[in-house]
Amino acid sequence: MQADNVPLLLVVCFLSLPLTFFSWDAFCAKKILFYLRIMTLPLNVDKWCEAVKASDECLSSPASAKNVEVVLSKSRTRGAQKVLCSCIEPFTQKLLMTKSGLSILSSLVKYGTPRTVNIICGRLLTSNPEIWTLDNKAISNIDVSLTEGFSALLEAIVYREDCNEANCLAILAPLSKKPIKQLFQCDFTLPASGYLLLRSTDKLHKAGKDKDSQEILRAALTTAERKPFAVRFVGVLMQKQGAYPDDAVRGEFVYSIVAPTLGKPDGVNLTGDFFKTIVLNSPPSALNMYCETISSLPDLYELSKRHNVCDIVAHIIGNATDTKPVFDLLAVIFKSSTDIDELLRSKKVPPLRLLASLYDNKACLQHVLKSVKGTQEAVLRGAKVKYLNATAPKPDLTRNAVMEKLTALRNDENNCRKRKRAV
Predict the structure, then answer these.
(1) Which of these, 358, 324, 326, lies nearest to 340 by C-alpha position?
(2) What's the rounded Cα separation, in Å, for the pair 223 and 145?
(3) Are 107 and 85 within 8 A, CB to CB?
(4) Burial classification of residue 162, based on how many CB atoms lie within 10 Å of its CB (0-12 exposed, 13-18 middle, 19 or more buried)
(5) What averages of pLDDT result for each successive group of 10 residues across the chain (423 residues)?
(6) Full-prediction pTM beyond 0.85?
(7) Where are the domains of the chain?
(8) CA angle 383–389–393, rounded 5-degree value
(9) Distance CA 254, CA 246 (A)
C-alpha cells in the first residue's frame, strides 16, 4: 500500500464508523424487541404455548400478568383458561416464586370456572402443601416481597364460594379451623379472613366483642408494613349493604377498628378515598358513631371543603338516624353564611351535593337557617337545582332544553294569535 493512500483510507474508515455503530445499534434494538416479545405472553391466546416453550421467563413478566388478566376477565368461554392451564402445568413452582407468576395464578382463580379453580388448588397443594395447610414455619419463610401476592391468591380462593370441589375445600379447611385471632396476626391470612367473618355470624359477633382482635387490627392499620393487608381486610368486610347479613354488626366492628386511628399521623386519613368508601358503605347505626367522631376532629373546619369530606358529610346528612350528632357536625362546618357561599361558588359536584342534601333534610335545613344568620332557604334551593343540573345525564339535559324552547315557541305563537283576534 502506498504511503499517499494511508490518510485517505483513515478518513474513509473514520467516516464509516457512525454508520457502522448506527447499524449495530439498530440490530441490537431489533434483537431486544424480538426477545421481549418472546418473553411476554401476548394478548393472542393462540400464541401462549409457543411463548412458554420459547422461554419460560415469560411467566415472570409483569406484562404477561397484565395481558392474562385482560384476556381472562373478558373471555366468555373456558378456552383461554384451558390453554393457560396446560401451558403452565410444569411451571407451577416457578410461578410461586415471582409476583407476576402469583398474579397469573390469581387471575385464573378469579376468572376461572370452578373446574379451573379446583385444578389450580390441586397444583398448589402439590407444590407447597405446608403453606396452604397454614404451617407457621412455612408461612414465616415466605419472601417478604411475595407476601402480598400469596395473600391475594389465598383471598381469591376464599372468595370463590361457588367452588366446592375437593382441592378447594382442602385449602379452606385449615382456615376455618384456625382461631380467627391468629388469622388477624398473619399478613398472609388477614384479607382472606374477612370473607370468613362475612359467612359466619358467630365468628363475626365474637370478633366484634373481642378487644384483643380489635387491638390487633388497629395496630395493623397504623403499621406501614401491615397497612395494605388491613386495608384489604376492611374492604372485604365493607361489601355492599344487603349482600351479607348483620350489616349493623359489620359496620360497628369496622368502626371500632377505624375510628380510634382517624386523624392520627399513621392512621386513617379523613380526606382519603379509603375512609370515604367505608362511610358510604356503613349502616345508619355506624354513621351515627362516625358523625360524633368526625365532629371532634380539631381540623375538621379546615378540611370540610375538601371533596371527599363533602361527600362524607352529605351521605351522613341523608342517612344518619340520630339528629343530635348531625347537628353538632353541621355546627362545626357551617359557622357563617360565607361557608355556604364558598361551597355554592364551586363548579365541582361534591360541594353542591352537600348543599343539596342539606336542603333535602328539613330538620338539618331549619337548624342551619337558625344558627347561620344571613342564609336564605332560596339559596340552598338554588344549590339543589345546580346540583341536579350538574349530575343529570347529558341526553336528559338536551331533551329538557329542547322541550323548553318548543314550549316557549308555542306560547309566543298563542300570544300572537290572541293579539290578532283582539285587533
Answers:
(1) 358
(2) 17
(3) no
(4) exposed
(5) 41 44 46 52 93 91 95 92 94 95 97 95 94 93 96 96 93 94 96 93 90 95 95 89 72 95 92 95 94 95 95 96 94 92 91 95 92 83 89 72 78 72 65
(6) no
(7) 36-152, 178-268, 269-404
(8) 150
(9) 12
